[in-house]
Each structure stands twice: as C-alpha cells, then as structure tokens.
Specification:
The protein is α/β, with parallel strands linked by helices. Strands 2-1-3-4-5 form a five-stranded parallel beta sheet, with helices on both faces. The chain is about 55% helix and about 10% strand.
Length: about 220
C-alpha cells in the first residue's frame, strides 16, 4: 500500500489533499504534519513513505530549503511542492532541486488527483497551465551547481549545515546530534569542501539562497 505524507499548516487544505488522495488511489495510507520538523520526523519514523506533498511556506520551511533537506536526507522519497506561488521561474528552481512535481494551491481536485497518481507512477507532474512557461524558463547555472553540491552532502552533513545556518555553535550541534564535537568539525570540513566555501558564514548563506518570499504574506501586507 503506497504511503503519502501531506505537509501543510492549513487544516482545510490538508483535508482537500487527503480527499483528493483517497479518490486518486484506492488503497493509500495517509499521514499529515504541519511543519518541516514534523516532515523530517515522520520520514525518519516511517521509511516506507513514498510521496510527500510539501508546502513551500509551512513553519520551519522558507522556500526550497525544506525540499533540499528532504532530498539530502531521504533521497528515495518523491516530493511534490505545493505552493500559492506559480511563478514559472520558481517552479523551474523546484524541479532543478529535485521536486518530482509542482502543485499550485489554485489547482482543482482533478489536478490534485492527477498529480498524486502521476508521481506515484514515477512520472514528473506539472499542471497543463504551467508546462509551456516552465519549459521556457531556463535553469540557472548557479542553481544547478548549487543543487549538485547540496546533493553531494551526506544526510548527517546536511543536518550539520542546517544547524550552522541557524547559528548554532559546534558544541550545540554536537549535543543536538548526540555526537562528539570533533565529529562536527570533521563534517564541517567536508561541507566547506563540497560547497566550495571557506567558513560557517558562507555555508549558512548557501541555504539562505533557497529562501523564497511567501505570496500569501505579500498579499496580507
């Protein structure tokens, strides 16, 4: 039985996704979470999850960083990005960073069902309304290189990088990961080398490059 994780902080939208998923696949085990920490915890606890529907702007996730975290730590899991942002350049970036599909929040129920079926069948999925414009949006050479560098990190190295971006010191990171401080230092040396950076500040900037503005907040403002 396929297993789906719906990751969104809006209960009504989670309910809509759950309904669409039930219609799309006859037998489907569905889990839900409302934060990026919840996503990573669920993936760690349920290694048999096949697909994550990931909100770009849920708590703990500010754009493509969450996608990168999932791809680095759980590379076998397919991720469909869910967002109110339907800018073709953002969609192109999400695909370049490993998304299996992109689902605008304006999508109808049939598109939701189609997306879930397609990605569970190991196909890439985009709504028909975006396919031409995304095809015209060229991949950024910098973004492509960044995706490759992040993909070269081990799951533990990515966790260290994420903590560095949050401003944690080596001892704090060691405590969080239950490892020795010298292990953290070894991971940092490898991270600097693989990302082509010289220090912690530059390493943290790498993840911040994946942040995106939330269209909903722009409207509210």
């Amino acid at each position: 039985m396929p297993k789906l994780l719906i990751a969104d902080d809006h209960p009504l939208f989670r309910a809509a996704l759950r309904s669409a998923a039930a219609d799309a696949v006859a037998q489907l085990d569905v889990l839900e979470t409302a934060s990026l920490d919840g996503v990573l915890a669920a993936l760690d606890a349920h290694p048999d999850i096949d697909l994550v529907l990931l909100d770009l702007h849920m708590p703990g996730n500010h754009g493509l960083a969450g996608l990168a975290a999932i791809r680095a730590q759980f590379p076998a899991v397919a991720v469909v990005v869910v967002s109110a942002n339907d800018d073709p350049r953002v969609v192109r970036r999400a695909l370049d960073h490993g998304a299996a599909g992109y689902l605008p929040k304006s999508s109808g129920l049939e598109e939701l069902r189609d997306a879930i079926r397609s990605v569970l069948a190991c196909e890439q999925w985009l709504p028909a309304s975006l396919r031409a414009s995304v095809a015209r949006a060229q991949s950024s050479a910098h973004d492509t290189e960044l995706a490759a560098r992040l993909a070269s990190l081990s799951p533990q190295q990515f966790r260290v990088l994420n903590y560095v971006a949050q401003g944690l010191l080596n001892k704090q990171i060691a405590d969080r990961l239950d490892v020795q401080e010298r292990t953290v230092k070894a991971h940092l040396s490898a991270i600097f080398d693989r990302l082509g950076v010289r220090n912690r500040t530059q390493a943290g900037v790498v993840l911040r490059e994946l942040e995106l503005s939330d269209p909903a907040k722009q409207i509210e403002g």
